[in-house]
Each structure stands twice: as structure tokens, then as C-alpha cells.
Amino acid sequence: MPGAFGALGTERNSMKKTVGAGSKASSARGKSQSGIRKLALIGAGKLGEGLLSALLDSRMLPLDRVEATVAPAEQARADYLAGRYGIKAHTNNRQAVKGASLVLIALKPYQVKGFLREVRNALAKDALLVSVAASVTTAMIERELGHAARVVRAMPNTPCLIRQGMTALARGKHATQADAEVAQNLFAAMGRTVVVDEKHMNAITAISGSGPAYVYMIIESLAAAGVKLGLPQGLATELASQTLLGASALVLHTGEHPAKLKDVVTTPAGCTIDGLLALEEGGLRITLIKAVMQAAARACQLVENDNS
């Protein structure tokens, strides 16, 4: 996917949240976007197709108002997208953005600048641009287009592909609150969303963008321990995976601090406290913190490289 998501805790109350299925806020999912004349999806790769599938399944837009592009050498993929989803798909970016009031940029970060220069004369001045290119800032997009473009930057993660994702959204200088709501409605079809100040995007990239990789390593380790104790590999992996899924869901459902929920599991002189002591001795807590800090530092470097 294009890109990898804390400094968010102190501003939690100021962040507007939209939650996916199973929540009161899930009404955003499937909300009609009748004000969109045409949606151009630029870069229908793995993430782009996942977004396309979610949008079409939610019936937010009719098929005849959606157009997608792929790289010039991938006409076969364009044909596949057109056949599977019933939309117009091709390799001509200028044609795709012509008349579009919403442009979703799902390109690799290094491709964005070239795309903007290619289409800036064909792009409608009132078009809203939503970019999922991880290290590309709203300021760079505004600068390349040369006018007061309305831009929203999005940082989704790979669980968006199964509509259990986390997407952070940040408005550019000229984007409005209504623009942010349009983006929220789009990404609510793929999971949860938060609207944040763009200054937090590097931290978010390191937490929820890179975070699935950390979780997979934890699942792998828990399953390996299960195998060591005599469990079959498949069973151990299922137990570990569902445990992390359920524990995460409980945090979101109750709104309780994870430490409080941890204490509920930790009975006096029980098994859990011995396991927790081993984790503390092994430095799990500080290691995870350091991992996020290093990932955030790398995200900062990429932003500097990709926006000069």
C-alpha cells in the first residue's frame, strides 16, 4: 500500500471520530455522496482497489460517477477493474480528473509530484483532493497545483482492506470542515476514522500505519509459545489472533484505559502476573515505545525527502 499511523492523547477530546460497523456512528457508512459529480481514483492498486470495493459496496456513489486509473503499462489490470466493478477504468490520468469533483490519489509518494504536474491544467479548480500517499503533505500538493486547492491527507492502514482499518485525516490550508466530513464518510466504509492536525501524521504513521507489523510479531510470538507448550500451530495462531482482536475490541467498546483492563485479568498470585513480570523484565514496554519512536523519526525523514 502507499505508505504505512503518541502525540494524540492530549488532544483526544478535540478529535472528531467516525467509527465503522457495530457502533452508533456507523451511520456514516453508506451515506450518499450525491454532491460528488464524479470521483476519480488515481492508482487503483491493492489499497486503491480495496477503497474502490468498499465505496461501491456502500453504495455511496453510482457506478457511472466513478473512474479509476492504473499505470500506463497495466491495461490488463484496467480491464480487470472495469469487468469486475462495472466502472470506467483506463490509464489516462488527465481524462480521469476531467470534470471530477473528488480525486482520490492512491499513488506511491514518489509518483505524486509527477501526477500533479501532469493533470493540473485538466483538474477542476473546485475539486477536492484526498491523498493516501503516506509521506506527501497537503502543502506540497497545494504548491504543485499552484492554486488554493482543497486537500485532505489520509493515513489508512492495511486492515482497511478487510474494512477493519484505522484512517487518520488531516485538512490542508484551504480544505473545509465539510471536506473533512466527505473524507470521513469515504473512509468510514473501511473502518474507523479520526480527524487530526497534520503535525501528528508522523506519529500516526508510526502507530497505526506501521502498527499492524508490530501486532503480527506479537501474534507470531504468542503462537510460537503455544507450539512450545504442545499446541498445534494453527490452533495456537487462532488463539493468539482472536485474543488480540477481542482485547482491542474491549478497549474500544468500554473506553477504559488499557492498564485498568489489564488489572481485571491480573488476579492475585495468579498466572497472569507471572507473565507480566516476564514481559517487564524482557523490556516489552520500552521496546514497543522505542519502535514507534524510531518509525516516527523515519516517517519524518521521508516527509522531508518527498516534499522538497
Describe what this molecule looks like in 3D.
Strands 1-9-8-7-6-5-2-3-4 form a nine-stranded mixed sheet, sandwiched between helices. It is elongated and about 70 Å long. It has twelve helices and nine strands. The protein is α/β, with parallel strands linked by helices and 308 residues long. It folds into two domains: 9-205, 3-Layer(aba) Sandwich (Rossmann fold), CATH 3.40.50.720; 211-303, Orthogonal Bundle (ProC C-terminal domain-like fold). Helices cover 49% and strands 13% of the residues.
Structural descriptors:
ProC C-terminal domain-like fold, 308 residues, nine-stranded mixed β-sheet, alpha/beta, 2 domains, Rossmann fold
Q: What is the rounded distance between the termini?
A: 22 Å
| CATH architecture field of the largest domain | 3-Layer(aba) Sandwich
Write down the domain tally: 2
Multimer state: single chain
Number of β-strand runs? 9
Main sheet, how many strands, which sense, barrel? 9 strands, mixed
H/E element string?
EEHEHEHEHEHEEHEHHHHHH
Question: What value does the average pLDDT take?
Answer: 89
Output the radius of gyration. Answer: 21 Å
Structural class: alpha/beta
Q: If helices are DSSP runs of H or I spanning 4 or more residues, what is the number of helices?
A: 12
> In CATH, what is the class of the largest domain?
Alpha Beta
